[in-house]
Amino acid sequence: MILTVDVGNTRIKAAVFEGDKLLQHFVFMKEELQKNIENILKKFINTSHLVVASVGNVEKQAFLKFEKEVVVYFISHNDSFPFVNGYETPKTLGIDRMVLAAGATFQFPGKNRLVIDAGTCVTFDFVNENDKYLGGAIAPGLQLRYKSLHDFTAKLPLLSLESPKDLVGNSTSQSIHSGVVNGLVYEIDGFIDEYRGLCSNFIIILTGGDTEFLAKRLKNTIFANSNFLLESLNQTFQYKIKND
Ligand SMILES: Nc1ncnc2c1ncn2[C@@H]1O[C@H](COP(=O)(O)OP(=O)(O)OP(=O)(O)O)[C@@H](O)[C@H]1O
Ligand SMILES: CC(C)(CO)[C@@H](O)C(=O)NCCC(=O)O
Ligand SMILES: [K+]
């Protein structure tokens, strides 16, 4: 069994896999890392590897503590990936984006693939049908949009995510909900339309903490899977073992 851990900028996501099968997944905050990993390893005593992909600021030591029980491995830019990296600054490319691009390459061979990860940031990652990773986009996520409207103005309240009642926001809160939610939905649909105009045979994957909320609001047909990063991390690690 393999325990995969995705350290994001807001939360930590983890999942235990047996082969390709996801047995259970977990979401927790950075402060609860030790306790959660301990409990997971206690529950899944046959776990042999702990595989980490991190873009957040958690010390490696927090994972290395478990080295007595499992092999701890940090996925990095030095691993083998199933695509050619066409990013002009490959060393600054987020490891989460690389893992997502790898997962898309494994799961949808021969397609033009666009992965959208709606978390703290919304990232777009494009792998073309020749397995070349070309890059994409980085934009603020839903929570970050609410927060920045409040943090950088005098009068705007900090609201939490809510479905806007209408396109036309008829109050301060409804205007904010419309701006944040409708804004991001139009943005994602707009990106998808533009990408689809570039080439045919496109598959769109949506993942991240806001997957469910966004998926039902998009006009485009997408493949929604909030566990896509963890599944991709498991596949990337299997691929690495095979290529070692
Ligand atoms: N319980 C929750 N706590 C925080 N955010 C949540 C929760 N449930 C859903 N969300 C949504 O998830 C989004 C954050 O996504 P996610 O947890 O995937 O981000 P993350 O951990 O920072 O990952 P990444 O850094 O890869 O984006 C927020 O915009 C928020 O709306
Ligand atoms: C964009 C985020 C924050 C998304 O999690 C992460 O992938 C990251 O820190 N990336 C580094 C910059 C880049 O990907 O080009
Ligand atoms: K993200």
From TrEMBL:
<feature type="binding site">
    <location>
        <begin position="94"/>
        <end position="97"/>
    </location>
    <ligand>
        <name>substrate</name>
    </ligand>
</feature>
<feature type="binding site">
    <location>
        <begin position="6"/>
        <end position="13"/>
    </location>
    <ligand>
        <name>ATP</name>
    </ligand>
</feature>
<dbReference type="InterPro" id="IPR004619">
    <property type="entry name" value="Type_III_PanK"/>
</dbReference>
<dbReference type="GO" id="GO:0015937">
    <property type="term" value="P:coenzyme A biosynthetic process"/>
</dbReference>
<comment type="function">
    <text>Catalyzes the phosphorylation of pantothenate (Pan), the first step in CoA biosynthesis.</text>
</comment>
<dbReference type="GO" id="GO:0005737">
    <property type="term" value="C:cytoplasm"/>
</dbReference>
<comment type="similarity">
    <text>Belongs to the type III pantothenate kinase family.</text>
</comment>
<protein>
    <recommendedName>
        <fullName>Type III pantothenate kinase</fullName>
        <ecNumber>2.7.1.33</ecNumber>
    </recommendedName>
</protein>
<dbReference type="GO" id="GO:0004594">
    <property type="term" value="F:pantothenate kinase activity"/>
</dbReference>
<dbReference type="Pfam" id="PF03309">
    <property type="entry name" value="Pan_kinase"/>
</dbReference>
<feature type="binding site">
    <location>
        <position position="172"/>
    </location>
    <ligand>
        <name>substrate</name>
    </ligand>
</feature>
<feature type="binding site">
    <location>
        <position position="87"/>
    </location>
    <ligand>
        <name>substrate</name>
    </ligand>
</feature>
<keyword id="KW-0547">Nucleotide-binding</keyword>
<dbReference type="GO" id="GO:0046872">
    <property type="term" value="F:metal ion binding"/>
</dbReference>
<dbReference type="GO" id="GO:0005524">
    <property type="term" value="F:ATP binding"/>
</dbReference>
<keyword id="KW-0418">Kinase</keyword>
<comment type="pathway">
    <text>Cofactor biosynthesis; coenzyme A biosynthesis; CoA from (R)-pantothenate: step 1/5.</text>
</comment>
<keyword id="KW-0067">ATP-binding</keyword>
<feature type="active site" description="Proton acceptor">
    <location>
        <position position="96"/>
    </location>
</feature>
<feature type="binding site">
    <location>
        <position position="120"/>
    </location>
    <ligand>
        <name>ATP</name>
    </ligand>
</feature>
<dbReference type="InterPro" id="IPR043129">
    <property type="entry name" value="ATPase_NBD"/>
</dbReference>
<comment type="subunit">
    <text>Homodimer.</text>
</comment>
<keyword id="KW-0630">Potassium</keyword>
<keyword id="KW-0808">Transferase</keyword>
<feature type="binding site">
    <location>
        <position position="117"/>
    </location>
    <ligand>
        <name>K(+)</name>
    </ligand>
</feature>
<keyword id="KW-0479">Metal-binding</keyword>
<keyword id="KW-0173">Coenzyme A biosynthesis</keyword>
<keyword id="KW-0963">Cytoplasm</keyword>
